[in-house]
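Milestone M4 deliverable, item 7.
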Amino acid sequence: MAEFSLRLDTSKQPAIPQAVRARVGDAEGCVIAADIVRDGEPYDLTGLDVRFECLLPDGSAVRDSGVSVEGSRVTYSVPIEVVAARGLVKTAYFRVARGTASIDSTESFVIDVKPGVRPCGVGVPDGCVPELDEALAAMRQQAGIAQGVAEDIERAESARSSAEAGRVKAETARASAESSRAAAEELRASSEVERKSAESKRASEHESLKSASQKATAAAAAAAGRATTAADDALDAAEEARAAAGMVSTDKTIFLAYQTVGDIEYLTLVDESED
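Output delivered:
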């Protein structure tokens, strides 16, 4: 592992840039130990954040917060993306910040990356591009939120389906109850018709019986009248017979007998003696 000691001034006075040399693929094999000064005096970095930044030959940028700070000295291991391809990194420096606010930066130095065979499977480690890491973290957070929303939607859909099934069941029960009610109403109407018919028949029979009773009463009264008349006639005939008895010869045999003339029976004297 190669360590390069630098003295970097934040005043950025014109000077020949200091150089760091590495080979393609020397990930973490190149360490920069830099003393940070301001106008030649040690720069106390206590409580401040220091970040490595550089512009690669292909135009892409690297920003890495993985810098160790102790007093005015910083130590930094050059990451794989800086030494991923041969070329001269002309702009490299350390930026000083307090929280998210940038307050200073050092003079630039160069990193000369010599040709080499790049190992297979070498990628960009996490933390080398903070903005990218933040974007990835935000994407992961959004993905988690989206997953939560999807689960909420799934639960809501399940609840909706359950409610719909309950509604259909209730509607089926309501329709069945309505059908039963209609059948009961139809039966009630039919029973009412039968009741009215029976009542009408009963009233008719009552009138018939009343008429028959009246007729029977009238017939009985008429018969009684006729019987009374016949009895009166019989009494009159008997009286006449008794009266006539005194005028009849003793050798005569006289009988009382009824003779019918039309619908009326008459009591008469019949002579049945032999002449």
